[in-house]
Write a structure and sequence with these properties.
The complex is a heterodimer of chains A (76) and B (783). Chain A has 76 residues and is α+β, with helices and mostly antiparallel strands. Helices cover 32% and strands 43% of the residues of chain A. Chain A has a single domain, classed as 2-Layer Sandwich (Alpha-Beta Plaits). Chain A is globular. The termini of chain A are close together. Chain B is globular and about 70 Å long. Classes of the chains: A alpha+beta (76), B alpha/beta (783). The complex binds iron/sulfur cluster. Iron/sulfur cluster (SF4) is lined by residues 53, 55-56, 58-60, 87-88, 90-91, 220-222 of chain B. Iron/sulfur cluster (SF4) binds at residues 53, 55-56, 58-60, 87-88, 90-91, 220-222 of chain B.
């Protein structure tokens, strides 16, 4: 089990749309932070490879997402 | 865990960590909130210590989780004043990288062509014998040191002391020559001394960001977020990007200029031309703080502002557009936006790794100077660095062939005398001529003019341009083949060529200072033990010096017995900085243990560090010491390192790259980084996840070119230059400009080692090679 907490920087106008697409990614749970240009994500995946792919590719490719940074990683 | 499952608890910890990093007390929407005080926890960690990321020059503050003497976790340090808890994905893998099973743990000596295990005594005696023999028979200039922006500051300082003041050779250079020597040349020719005057804090005040040749999004992601944060909160913040490759920075860019690679100088002149023609310049600042200069017959000649204006007439946006392939309207827009300010320029290898690197740097400074975008919040030219300690470790300690510590240069007799006195070296010991710079050093090696070289914490067997030539210089068997020592934590493309390999302790296995891009010196603690018999570079250098003393080629007691720890050397470094423009005498080791880095100059223990140099009220050197000026008011600027306290606006002519595309080699190759890997990937390839995320080298080809060549994504393509070839998989994407291909520099397999193709032509001023531009042929290859 791998759980990663990440902060995602989004374009304010596309915040809602990006949230929706992110929520549809398997193993990804978005949560709100305190402004329209950022949101939090929890990524749960069976392997670090999957988690890494999700964070650095799938999440990055979502329209409106500008960047993503991990803040917490739990591997076991 | 009571009513929540362990998995839920970990999820909550993850959310709390993100909320803490984002500056919120708790996640804003979600089921039962964690304790507001919850901090990220990786359960295995029993204690956490502040430290610094091992990778890039951003210098992110990290916290390292230790359990039972082992490094088990890493997280961003929310208390870090500039990076505030952010890290990029690479950093999370550092614990894995440190414990890679292929760490070198024993010294090795080459016998009958094979590296075999040896004792430290055997290996060090052999190294010392070879060096001493060379020095005795062929003189001090027959040996050389090649160092790194990844060594600790104390290590580079000690090596500099040993070679220049102990052995008596200036043949000491380092890999920052490959990445930021042109930035050094730009600062020193314009302001008299190296290093940025501003800091990361300027990001929070800038209205215009001028990014040149910097893939900040992938190479310095945490700084990129700070730029995004600034932009997201201020609708009038704009980003101008100059880069022939549409990197991810392009997504947030307001004005994008994509010059033909190597042809951007005219853009910067054209921007200056527009700024002055439209009266957007700053006449008062110009009168007070600037001189204008050109070079005629190798002599510097001062000229008037009017002559500068006349010079710029040859660089109208229309003329620049023709040469650079960028629309004139965009050059005009960029110029106006730049002049409006506050403007912060950030640049990296796209500007530095060029045969006109210093000139290109000068022209960025010119723009800041003629507009007065200087010394005010958000208005500053700022070069970014790729290595964690290129600034503090190599530039500042003077560990390059033409430098001495803290702004001193070999060419200056007073500077040499000052260092001889401090080091206790006899007068005249430091030679008056610059030593061999990186490329010339490896050329001399190939010509058997050097007899012995020690290479520490770097991998020139992969990172030098025109790599076949210099790999042969290091490793090809021949009668007088020089003796090569490689000190590293892992096997590399360099250790495979060495006669002796010494196993090195890594980051966190030793204590010392890293100095990152914004003049911040940060102390990293030793937290874990090095594996096997590995030793720090510092201990290896001490041992080496002692053995050279025993053999009579370094004066007895010059180093042996003087220093035991890096903290001892730090005391001397502080003294070396006293009364220089770098003065950090207020950074005691005790203070550094407590604080999360301090920005020099800092003259006493109570000074908080300097945000903006040359500004009265901020820079303590304007209050005390040789540069003090009581006549200034708070906020006044005095460029006290400059020519008569003035900065120089240089009239640099237009100049093409060393090897533009031609009919035989019709494409331009540029090299660079990917997010997952770092430099020669000695470390990042050790994390299987990072390796799998970017498993093989590739070549980006523009769709228009791919169509002409009949290449599809996934095909193998062969890239050939006048020096060598590689065959890698194609990615057909519109990221590079048509006519340009891009290959990352990280892969070390023979078929993918891109530096076999790159050119070793270098900037005559900075001696930095032109990794960013060389001509290649692109053909469909065989798998
Ligand atoms: S941005 Fe650079 S210093 Fe910061 S975590 Fe990433 S690699 Fe490390």
């Amino acid at each position: 089990m791998v759980i990663i907490g990440a902060m995602v920087r989004v374009n304010a106008e596309q915040h809602q749309a990006a949230w929706q697409v992110l929520a549809d990614l398997p193993g990804v749970t978005p949560f709100a932070l305190d402004d329209a240009t950022r949101l939090g994500l929890v990524i749960e995946s069976p392997s670090l490879d999957d988690a890494y792919r999700l964070l650095n590719h799938d999440v990055h490719d979502v329209p409106g997402v500008l960047s993503a940074y991990p803040a917490y990683a739990h591997f076991e | 865990m009571n009513d929540i499952t362990r998995r839920e608890f970990i999820k909550w910890s993850a959310m709390a960590a993100v909320a803490t990093m984002a500056g919120c007390s708790a996640p804003q929407q979600a089921a039962p909130a964690p304790q507001a005080t919850a901090r990220p926890t990786v359960e295995a960690a029993k204690e956490w210590h502040k430290s610094v990321c091992r990778f890039c020059g951003t210098g992110c503050g990290v916290q390292l989780g230790i359990a039972d003497g082992k490094l088990v976790a890493l997280r961003g340090d929310p208390d870090h004043p500039t990076t505030k808890g952010l890290v990029c994905a690479k950093a999370l893998f550092l614990p894995k990288i440190v414990y890679s099973p292929d760490r070198l743990t024993k010294p090795q000596i080459r016998k009958a062509g094979k590296l075999v295990d040896a004792t430290w005594d055997e290996a060090m005696n052999l190294v010392a014998d070879k060096f001493a023999d060379a020095i005795k028979t062929a003189g001090p200039d027959s040996v050389a040191y090649y160092g790194s922006g990844q060594a600790l500051a104390e290590e580079s300082y000690l090596a500099n002391r040993l070679f220049k003041g102990g052995i008596g050779t200036n043949n000491l250079d380092g890999n920052p020559r490959l990445c930021m020597a042109s930035a050094v040349g730009g600062y020193t020719t314009t302001y008299g001394k190296d290093e940025p005057m501003g800091s990361y804090d300027d990001i929070d005040h800038a209205r215009t960001f001028f990014l040149i040749g910097s893939n900040t999004a992938e190479a310095h992601p945490v700084l990129f977020d700070r730029i995004l944060d600034r932009k997201s909160k201020n609708a009038n913040v704009q980003i101008i990007l100059v880069d022939p490759r549409k990197t991810p920075v392009r997504r947030v860019t307001d004005i994008y200029l994509d010059p033909i690679p190597g042809f951007d100088l005219d853009i910067f002149h054209a921007m200056a031309q527009v700024i002055i023609a439209e009266k957007l310049h700053a006449p008062d600042f110009i009168t007070k703080h600037l001189v204008f200069r050109k070079v005629v017959d190798n002599q510097n000649v001062d000229v008037t502002f009017d002559e500068y204006v006349k010079f710029l007439e040859a660089f109208t946006p229309e003329k620049a557009a023709e040469k650079c392939g960028v629309p004139a309207t965009k050059i005009r827009q960029a110029a106006r936006m730049f002049a409006q300010g506050p403007t912060m320029s950030l640049w990296c290898m796209g500007l530095n790794q060029r045969t006109v690197g210093v000139w290109a740097n000068n022209l960025i400074h010119n723009l800041h100077l003629i507009t007065g975008q200087f010394g005010k919040p958000g208005a500053t030219p700022f070069s970014l660095t790729g290595q964690p300690n290129a600034c503090g470790g190599v530039r500042d300690t003077g560990a390059l062939a033409h430098l001495l510590p803290y702004g001193r240069v070999i060419a200056n007799a007073d500077h040499r005398a000052q260092m001889e006195k401090l080091w206790g070296a006899p007068a005249g010991k430091i030679k008056a001529q610059d030593g061999l710079n990186t490329i010339d050093m490896f050329k001399a090696l190939g010509e058997d003019k050097l007899k012995a070289m020690i290479i520490i914490t770097t991998n020139p067997g992969q990172s030098l341009p025109n790599a076949n030539k210099y790999r042969d210089a290091m490793g090809k068997e021949r009668a007088n083949k020089p003796f090569i020592v490689s000190v590293d934590a892992y096997p590399t493309r360099t250790t495979e060529l060495a006669d002796v390999v010494l196993p090195a302790a890594m980051w966190s296995e030793k204590e010392g200072v890293f100095g990152m891009s914004e003049r911040r010196y940060q102390l990293m603690p030793k937290l874990i033990s090095a594996p096997g018999e590995a030793r720090s570079d510092f201990d290896i250098l001490l041992d080496f010096a002692a053995r050279l003393e025993e053999r009579g080629v370094v004066a007895k007691g010059y180093i042996a017995g003087k220093f035991k720890t890096t903290a001892d050397v730090w005391e001397e470094m502080k003294e070396a900085s006293r009364n220089t423009a770098y003065d950090f005498t207020g950074m005691s080791r005790e203070r550094m243990k407590k604080e999360r880095g301090i920005r020099w100059p800092v003259l006493d223990e109570t000074h908080p560090g300097t945000n903006r140099r040359f500004v009265k009220g901020d820079d303590p050197l304007l209050d005390k010491g040789p540069f003090a000026d009581a006549n200034l008011k708070p906020g006044d600027i005095k460029i006290y390192t400059g020519a008569n306290n003035k900065a120089i606006v240089w009239l640099r002519p237009s100049k093409d790259p060393a090897e533009p595309a031609d009919k035989d080699f019709p494409f331009v190759l540029s090299t660079g980084r990917v997010l997952e890997h770092w430099h020669t990937a000695t470390m990042t390839m050790k994390a299987p996840e990072l390796r799998r995320a970017q498993p093989e080298a590739y070549c980006e080809v523009h769709p228009l070119d791919a169509e002409k060549l009949g290449i599809k994504t996934g095909d193998m393509v062969k890239l050939t230059s006048r020096r060598g070839d590689v065959t890698v998989r194609a990615r057909v994407v519109d990221t590079p400009r048509p006519g340009m291909v891009f290959v990352p520099m990280h892969w070390y397999e023979d078929n993918a080692l891109i530096n076999k193709v790159t050119i070793d032509a270098y900037d005559p001023a900075s001696r930095q090679p032109e990794f960013k531009v060389c001509a290649v042929k692109v053909e469909k290859g065989k798998a």
